From TrEMBL, chain A:
The chain crosses the membrane at residues 12-30, 95-119, 131-155, 175-196, 235-257, 285-307. SUPFAM superfamilies: MetI-like. GO terms for cellular component: plasma membrane. This is ABC transporter permease. GO terms for molecular function: dipeptide transmembrane transporter activity. CDD domains: TM_PBP2. Belongs to the binding-protein-dependent transport system permease family. It comes from Aliirhizobium smilacinae. It comes from the Bacteria. Keywords: Cell membrane, Membrane, Transmembrane, Transmembrane helix, Transport. It is found in: Cell membrane.
Automatic annotation (TrEMBL), chain B:
This is ABC transporter permease. Belongs to the binding-protein-dependent transport system permease family. GO terms for biological process: transmembrane transport. The keyword Transmembrane helix applies. One of its GO terms (cellular component) is plasma membrane. It is a multi-pass membrane protein. It comes from the Bacteria.
Length: 315, 274
């Protein structure tokens, strides 16, 4: 058990290292001088030279990469060119919006998908099953940001029930914060729920034909007790796997949905950094998002071990 | 062919996808009016009135015409991106299946790493340097598709390499390249075709997202994503501007996903569509 854990941790760090190298290479080897890109066409040669020196662009690539890496390890992600503040602080500030948003979306999508998938599997080929199937087809096809726009039209513009966007900050109170994140989270959760419903239905169907579920029924358990206590825990592994695989899309969705709702999250930070040509912020945010995906997949790997005790011995 | 009519999912998917392609192609030769033609007098007219089938936008441009040209822009970008990603990824997959060993380890790790950077973010990184536009969108989507197809073809090809007839081909002295071309590729092509269809849907969604952020084709080329972005200012007066392009995206993705699922059932009965 411990050796598996150590091996996975080592693999996690190697992957993170390679991703950082990849992002650094892309951001630094592409044609174009970061200093010139940041300052625009009107910059004088003197300002350009000063910024190049400030960014350390005169140093060799390898030295710059190692310096960036050393900074990362110490929590120093560099200085934002446009905001004039440390990037680490910027990311932390934005994370308190993006993280709760993503969490709410994950919770909502699981809360919709698992009961729906289980119910559809138990009534295979019934009308309910077909309706659930249609739901997942449609929700996978609609872009999250469009769902966001429709929610704003319906509940903000027409009915006036919800704020159309913006975030009051957690200082305004938990309720105000959660209300501001509710519609964005629904928009983000819907496509995920569609994917997860399909996976939950398929895997429950597979497990329901297993001997242990038949045994559970034979010993007198009710139908729903057999499903919820025996079939579902075994059917959860594919659902958790899919949740991990979908994380990349959740993040991509968050970048878009944050822009629809004007939420000051990480996705919006990346977008603003692009508009302002703030290369350092871009580099750090992209690395942060990618690291999040990698760590998430690592946690999913570990979650298997908790869901399925058999893996503790064999993995 | 009879199989198509016995499978409603495949049939619906086929009809929707073909209609979409037909509309996109039609837009190259005909649209109700010029999609870039402004007519301020007729601005923000609702659908099914003097503003035409789908109404007009804030500049009085015909929404139906813009949607048609948008279909071409969205489909051509997505098709190109998936074609590049599928060719490169499948090539990597079959080569790795042929060589195995450390190459497999490196390529699979590489796939994990590429997979960790969402295409929206790689498009942003590329956009910062080479500027945003169709080329950036295609490259960003294609890069993300490579690991998808590399993983799929590697897994599928490995199964074929274990078959008896491949062992027999090795036994009579056929080269690995010949075996790959004669036995492996024809046997995994169905799975690649199914995956291409499904990934096309994903590419359309991503392209729409990139255009929404202003990272797709530049104006005045209409794209579904940018039409949605532009609609945000006119929610109260003209909600149809936000509804129509979104419906077009959803319909396109729905059609392609259904086509992919239907094809999977038709071509590969062993795999379940879930």
């Amino acid at each position: 058990m411990i050796s598996i854990f150590i091996r996975r941790i080592v693999s996690l760090f190697v992957t993170l290292l390679v991703v950082s190298l990849l992002i650094f290479t892309v951001m630094n080897l592409l044609p174009g001088d970061p200093a010139a890109i940041m300052l625009g066409t009107s910059a004088t040669p003197e300002t350009l030279a000063a910024l190049r020196a400030q960014l350390g662009l005169d140093e060799p690539l390898a030295v710059r990469y190692l310096a960036w890496l050393a900074g990362l390890v110490q929590g120093d992600l560099g200085q934002s060119y446009t905001y004039g503040v440390p990037v680490a602080g910027l990311i932390a500030e934005r994370l308190v919006v993006t993280l709760p948003l993503a969490l709410m979306a994950v919770v909502m999508s699981v809360a919709i998908a698992v009961p729906l998938g289980v119910a559809a599997a138990r009534r295979q080929n019934s009308l309910f099953d077909h309706v659930a199937g249609a739901f997942s087809y449609v929700s996978i096809a609609v872009p999250a940001f469009w769902v966001g726009l429709l929610l704003v039209i319906a509940f903000s513009t027409k009915l006036g029930w919800m704020p159309a966007g913006g975030f009051p900050g957690w200082d305004a109170g938990l309720w105000a914060g959660l209300t501001a994140l509710l519609m964005p989270a629904i928009a983000l959760a819907l496509p995920q729920a569609g994917v997860l419903t399909r996976v939950a239905r398929t895997s429950v169907l597979e497990v329901m034909n297993e001997d242990f579920v038949r045994t559970a029924r034979a010993k007198g358990l009710s139908d729903s007790a057999a499903v919820w206590r025996h079939a579902l825990p075994n059917a959860l592994i594919p659902v958790v796997t899919m949740l991990g695989m979908q994380f990349t899309f959740l993040i991509a969705g968050a970048v878009l949905v944050e822009n629809v709702f004007n939420l000051p999250g990480l996705g919006r930070l990346a977008y603003q950094a692009l508009a302002q040509r703030d290369i350092i912020v871009m580099q750090d945010v992209v690395l942060f998002f990618s690291a999040l995906v990698i760590v998430m997949n690592f946690l999913v790997d570990l979650a298997y071990v908790f869901i399925d005790p058999r893996l503790r011995v064999t993995a | 062919m009879a199989g198509v009519f016995r499978r409603p999912v495949l049939l619906i998917g086929l009809v929707v996808s073909l209609t979409l392609i037909a509309v996109a192609l039609l837009s190259l030769v005909w649209t109700p009016s010029l999609p870039s033609k402004m007519n301020i007098v007729q601005r923000l007219k609702p659908p099914l009135g003097p503003g035409g089938l789908f109404g007009t936008d804030q500049f009085g441009r015909d929404v139906a015409s813009m949607l048609m040209v948008g279909a071409w822009n969205s489909l051509s970008t997505s098709f190109l991106a998936v074609a590049i990603g599928a060719s490169l990824g499948s090539a990597v997959g079959v080569i790795v299946a042929m060589r195995r060993g450390w190459l497999e380890l490196i390529v699979m790790r590489g796939c994990d790493i590429i997979f960790a950077v969402p295409p929206i973010l790689s498009a942003m990184m590329l956009g910062a340097f080479i500027g945003s536009g169709r080329f950036t969108a295609i490259i960003a989507i294609a890069v993300f598709m490579v690991p998808v197809f590399a993983r799929l073809t590697l897994a599928a090809a490995r199964q074929i390499w274990a078959r008896d007839y491949v062992t027999a081909a090795i036994g009579i002295g056929r080269s690995k390249t010949t075996i790959t071309l004669v036995h492996i590729l024809p046997n995994i092509s169905n799975q690649i075709i199914v995956q291409v269809t499904i990934q096309l849907g994903l590419a359309i969604l991503t392209e729409a997202g990139l255009s929404f952020l202003g990272l797709g084709m530049p104006p005045p080329n209409p794209t579904w994503g940018r039409m949605l972005a532009d609609s945000q200012t006119f929610f109260a007066q003209a909600p149809w501007l936000a509804i129509m392009p979104g419906l077009a995206i959803a319909l396109a993705v729905l059609g392609l996903n259904m086509l992919g699922d239907g094809l999977r059932d038709l071509l590969d009965p062993k795999m379940k569509s879930g």
